[in-house]
Design brief:
This protein is an alpha+beta fold and about 425 residues long. Helices cover about 40% and strands about 20% of the residues. The protein has 16 helices and 16 strands. A hairpin with a 4-residue loop joins strand 8 and strand 9. Helix 4 runs antiparallel to helix 5 and helix 7 packs parallel to helix 12. The protein is globular, with a radius of gyration of 22 Å.
């Protein structure tokens, strides 16, 4: 891989993030990705069939969206000879898609890549259990009406107990813990209080409200359903969020001793974010605009019981490799899976012993300033469609750098199963000097 090459973020769009409300929402994951990608492609000044590949992160596509990246590419009208492939790294799948595009550009394999993530969590599958599947197998194999009637008499109520794929996906089968329970574990380790979690959550809603009011989310493209309804904003925002309101909620994951509630956790959401990445060669050839450039990325593993600390693990090698201090980074995005999890990452970097024992550091990194972290809200206020969030935070970081004439930002996520992902992006040199 040639480090002399550069991967640029040319442009990007996302849909509004729509809160799941107990039934399938109006859009499938492929619908969402197409709604984000189509206006993105329409405003480019190069032939879109010059795209080299399409890479999309998604965790729970429906039964008609196998290799959803290919479905998206063909529905967008891209040429059949453009390959498309789907990646899956739980909550960081969208970032994984960008990382694959970034590395393919650095290697010289691709010059222009459409990459991002999508998820329609409201359409997560509801499955038959094995008892019902086995019964159906016997029923389909029965050759006579008598055999079928006999099997009908053997069916039991337990056969109808469904498997809720979403609930399975929000649990770790190896350690036997839900994601919320892992957040409780982190809060206990660092002494994070319920009040601190709720304060962080209220701030997330306040920041998203301010971002909407001040026009800072221009990466959003409106959605329109088949009934003519328009969706223009992230609809999980609670403008009336307050400490008093949040204090009324009971813990959800540890009902007796816990502190994690639905209000200080990310919302279950539908949404997509798509970006165009290009090589320096393509930027020059087609005179493409440059929003930012990707300068480093990192994936790390850790104890699944504390998976929420993944950002602390993934960001640390980037900082060390690039000889950076906290003040050298202008803005930070840490995906808000849980308020306690983000606060835990902050505490981990402040803790000298933790940094020495787990992050291979001689001393503590220091404290990430709250005023530079998730400045326009995050998963608690706008939602966390797992396949899309990694792409969203990178796209939004690029826009933050542009809006604030800043140089450098790092976006990071925790990943179910005990991993962390991080990506560093910087303003293009000429843009940073303006």
């Amino acid at each position: 891989m040639s480090k002399s090459k550069t991967a640029y973020i040319v442009d990007g769009s996302r849909t509004p993030f729509l809160k799941a409300r107990g039934k399938p929402g109006p859009f499938l994951a492929s619908d969402l990705a197409i709604s984000a990608a189509r206006p993105l492609l329409l405003r480019q000044n190069f032939p879109v069939n010059n795209i080299d590949e399409v890479i999309v992160g998604c965790i729970m596509p429906t039964e008609n969206e196998v290799n959803i990246a290919r479905v998206i590419a063909l529905r967008l009208g891209l040429a059949e000879n453009i390959p498309a492939w789907t990646v899956q790294r739980n909550c960081a799948s969208g970032m994984q898609a960008l990382d694959c595009a970034y590395r393919n550009i650095l290697s010289g394999q691709s010059d222009i890549v459409l990459a991002g993530g999508t998820e329609s969590m409201s359409h997560a599958p509801v499955l038959f259990n094995d008892l019902m599947v086995n019964w159906l197998s016997l029923f389909m194999a029965a050759k006579t009406t008598g055999q079928k009637l006999q099997l009908i008499t053997k069916i039991r109520p337990s056969y109808f107990k469904p498997i809720i794929a979403l609930l399975c996906g929000l649990s770790d089968p190896v350690v036997g813990m839900s994601m919320g329970q892992t957040a409780e574990q982190i809060a206990f380790r660092f002494g994070i209080t319920r009040e601190q979690m709720d304060e962080f959550s209220v701030a997330s809603h306040q920041r998203l409200a301010a971002a909407q009011d001040n026009g800072k989310l221009d990466e959003i493209e409106a959605l329109y359903d088949n009934m003519g309804n328009a969706f223009e904003h992230d609809d999980g925002l609670r403008r009336d969020s307050s400490m008093a309101n949040l204090a009324k909620l009971k813990p959800y994951f540890d009902r007796k001793y816990g502190m994690v509630t639905p209000a200080n956790s990310a919302q279950i959401t539908d949404g997509a974010a798509m970006l165009l990445l290009a090589s320096a060669k393509a930027v020059k050839k087609y005179n493409l605009p440059v929003l930012a450039k990707i300068t480093d990325s990192q994936w790390s593993g850790l104890d699944p019981k504390e998976m929420g600390l993944g950002p602390a693990y993934a960001m640390a090698p980037i900082m060390k490799r690039n000889k950076l201090k906290i003040d050298d980074v202008d803005y930070w995005e840490i995906n808000e899976a849980f308020a306690g999890q983000v606060l835990g990452c902050i505490e981990a970097w402040k803790d000298k012993d933790y940094c020495k024992q787990f992050l291979d550091q001689k001393t503590a990194f220091g404290e990430i300033p709250h005023e530079k972290l998730n400045i326009d809200g995050g998963g608690i206020s706008l939602g966390h469609p797992v396949g899309a969030s990694g792409a969203r935070i990178v796209l939004h970081m690029a826009n933050i750098l542009k809006q604030n004439n800043a140089k450098r930002g790092i976006a990071s996520l925790c990943i179910g199963g005990g991993q962390g992902g991080a990506m560093m992006i910087e303003a293009n040199d000429s843009a940073a000097e303006e």
